[in-house]
Amino acid sequence: MTLGQVTVPSHADAITDPVPSPAPAVGKVKVACLQVSAGPDPAANLETLLPMIRQARDAGAEFILTPENVVMIEPRRGPKFAKAEDEAHPAILPALAEAARETGAWLLAGSLAVKVPGEDRLANRSYLFDPTGGIIARYDKIHMFDVQLANGESYKESNQFRPGNKAVVADTPFGRIGMTICYDLRFGQLYRALAQAGAGILTVPSAFTVPTGQAHWHTLLKARAIENGCFVLAPAQTGTHAEGRATYGHSLIVAPWGEVLADGGGEVGIVMAELDLAEIAKARAMVPSLTHDRDWSHPILGMEAPNKPIYG
């Protein structure tokens, strides 16, 4: 699909069949996670975002990542649908493509709310741009944030967004990327599938709530890095948004052994780190758990197990 100067791939790059593993990644790459505080106006948010992309590139970043809902946090259904991106007549994607072309960097648009033809719900969609401005992969968030928190916060993402159903990887000069979004973080099986499909870098653009962020954000991101021997890059929304919604911030860059290489704290800004890609193979060689999977039965009650021994 072509959007003016932007070509959007089909989901042919999704993990529907086993994909060949890439050669081990080598060398180093400098990455930047942009931490923003989006409001309900996509144009205004884009105006803030584009200089941050240029600033990150000027600081040496080769891969620049933005959070979930990067150009719009709009709680109201009607305005959200009215302002959602239409791939047939895009407003935001050409500007992001041009930012990638202008800077010559790889760019992850963490997610946009995107209209889906024939659907009454949107897609929460992540896009990966190469340095020519081409979209080489897109991923629709699979797991919907439908929760009721103890402090009274309630979210029903599935009312406005339809879930995706394809896991997606993409190849870059610095290795294979596995794409996820926010609440996906709680579903470790997705990350294992991406890692076993050859991903050495996992992206987790997010807009975590403050209560769940304080309780779980660092722990979950470190766990996904450790159990898969991957770098985890998690650009995040921060601050107070439309109608009082608050997000946690703390954009993180985590190494395959679990070390936090950078933490964005609670303020808008840019966090950067240099990734030594050899650390992926090093971690996996020490603990090769990705190759140790075993089949097992469905759980059974212990005393109802077949062939239980009889004593006495």
Description of the molecule:
The chain is an alpha+beta fold. It has a single domain (26-289), classed as Nitrilase/N-carbamoyl-D-aminoacid amidohydrolase, CATH 3.60.110.10. The chain contains 6 helices and 18 strands. The protein has helices at 42-58, 77-83, 93-103, 188-196, 210-228, 278-286, and strands at residues 2-3, 6-7, 28-35, 63-65, 106-114, 123-129, 135-140, 146-148, 154-156, 168-172, 175-179, 199-203, 231-234, 238-240, 246-248, 252-254, 260-263, 269-276. The strands form 5 sheets. It has a 6-stranded mixed beta sheet. Strands 10-11-12-13-16-17 form a 6-stranded mixed beta sheet, with helices on one face. A two-stranded antiparallel sheet has the order 1-2. The radius of gyration is 20 Å and the shape is globular. The model has no long low-confidence stretch (mean pLDDT 93).
End-to-end distance, in Å? 72 Å
Helix content: 10-25%
Strand content: 25-35%
Contiguous helical run count: 6
Class derived from helix and strand content: alpha+beta
Name the CATH homologous superfamily: Carbon-nitrogen hydrolase
